[in-house]
Specification:
Helix content: under 10%
Shape: globular
Strand content: 35-45%
Structural class: mainly beta
Order of helices and strands: EEEEEHEEEEEE
């Protein structure tokens, strides 16, 4: 296979009509193409910090040794895939991702107050739901789909005058019916005549 610089991609957000990170409801249909529009059961969470998105696969292997103590085979003991990012917007969707859907309550604006969002933190379970992450480089696109993910870590939030408030989270992934935690789809952006 010949080398081709067009296959070298940067990981910018694909957020022409939505945010680049979307979480799905119980009826969400998983996308299978990078350019596919998100359905009504997907909610975008707005801007993400300049650090972008990180995908970390983790494999734990166990060696099988022979009588002499030499490792002769490795078997997979555990697999986990995590994704991490920091929400840059302080909006309802980002706070639901950070605090958990059931821990965020919204009160509409009135004549005397704006729209109020109450986010509560405590020893509560985080919801498991599908996720999609949209990335682009010019016309080339990458779609990362997590059929079943759960926020496993909430990062430190700093409230300072000199920086934007960010809501950093880590998402743990679980296998789908076929045994896969994460699906990655690419579209090189070169269309046929």
């Amino acid at each position: 296979m010949a080398i081709d610089a067009k296959n070298v991609l940067v990981g910018g957000p694909d957020q022409a009509t939505t945010g680049a990170i979307l979480s799905g409801g119980p009826e969400a249909v998983l996308p299978t193409e990078p350019g596919e529009a998100a359905g009504d059961d997907w909610e975008d969470s707005g801007y993400i910090s300049e650090d972008g998105l990180t995908l970390t696969p983790e494999r734990s292997m166990t060696g099988i040794k022979d009588w002499s103590g030499a490792t002769i085979k490795e078997i997979l003991e555990e697999f986990n895939g995590t994704l991490a990012w920091a929400h840059l917007e302080t909006n309802e969707a980002a706070l639901k991702n950070y605090f958990g859907d059931d821990n965020v309550k919204v009160t509409p604006a009135t004549e005397s107050t704006g729209r109020i969002i109450k986010a509560s933190m405590g020893a509560t379970d985080m919801p498991r739901k599908p996720w999609q992450f949209r990335v682009k480089d010019g016309k080339a696109k990458v779609l990362i789909v997590v059929p079943d993910g759960q926020v496993s870590e909430q990062g430190e939030v700093a409230f300072t005058k000199t920086n934007a408030i960010t809501w950093p989270i880590t998402l743990k992934t679980f296998p789908d019916a076929d045994g896969y935690n994460v699906h990655i789809y690419t579209d090189d952006g070169v269309f046929s005549a």
